[in-house]
Amino acid sequence: MSVIVKKGKISAIPHTEFYAVEKVLALEEIHGTYGFSGPYTRKLHVRAYPTEQLQPPVKADYDLVSRVALVDVLQPYHILSSEVPFEACPMKSRKPILFGTSTIISISKPVHSMSPNTFFRNGEKHEAYYVQDGTGELKTEYGSISFRKGLYLIIPKGTIYQIELTSKNAYFLIMESIYPVEFPPHYMNKAGQATLMAPVVETEIDVPMFQEPIDKSGEYFIDIKHDGGHVTRLTLDHHPFDIAGWEGAVYPFGFDIKNHHGIAREIHTAPPVHQTFQAGNVPFNGISICSFVSQMEGWHPKDVAAPFAHSNVDSDEVMFFSSSDYGAREGVIKEGSITFHPGSIPHSPHGDSALRSMNDRGKMNKRLAVMVDTYFESIRVTDHGYKYSDKDYSMSWYKAKSKIGSR
Ligand SMILES: [Fe+2]
Q1: Residue 319 Cα, ligand 1 centroid: separation in angstroms?
Q2: d(CA 168, CA 322)
């Protein structure tokens, strides 16, 4: 993140003597990216290194491996995440739906919190959660972030965290990338602020609320995701939230989708205008995360508000419909629907939505959706994704056209 944050107590000069507890030397740790050349954060542990394991590592009793669906034909997909069951804790409920070489899209619909002595660390990818429903706390070594519907939670690779629910269940879309998730660099000026023309403001983030260090010994489990979704359990002899203070650019943060301040144009605007985050060097690799928020449709007297058919050949496109209100897919998608349109084939609005959209010129739409576009990365449907898919989706454009009788 472009905003450098400092929390708690930390030595003024890096790598120098510091005592959070009298006569106990605090121990420094760097949480770094891009091989010590990228953004990093300096943390000070009260008295223990994060390496002190009470017993040898073991395989966890679950994994998060993406297994490709048996049906492997090139086609658009419509996956009904509303039909994925609510079950288990946030990690054991997590189901990969779509995946590629550097990206994974999952759904998690937990019914209870993680147990107090169990933590998670994604050791292979950076994460962006989108909270479709539920409330609770993302508790991390950097502090806590309260979450609610419509919040993005950006969690850097390597962050130790726990999810505690305060609602009876929760519903998360989880986007993972091998690259850090950040505001698009082209939105930022030389000082690291979002420009005055950007749809985001870099200070409109929820920074973790610092918690006093937990200086406690005991038995604490860290489930680490690695090597394509395998999970290994480490057992530490002390509580992992033992940070006296930290300072840096790598930390989890929240960003409300409603803080994406949509930019409208007289005529239809292509999706890059909806970009909130990116991971990687977009548009050459990685992903864009776009927020389709309520905004005014084009006001040109001849504007056709519905998007054009598109062959976006270098991108596979995933849309998550937080609301069912979406003109171009009216009558096809439901709340929680995920559409996956591979770049190898074109896709378009359904039925007569182009015609209908001419009535919407200059009016506010009510949509709420999140889109992930990959760049030069093909993604595939997993067994979970296929299980909850609408098997007739590839025929839905033909059926919608037939229904309005213009064929
Ligand atoms: Fe599209």
Answers
A1: 8
A2: 19
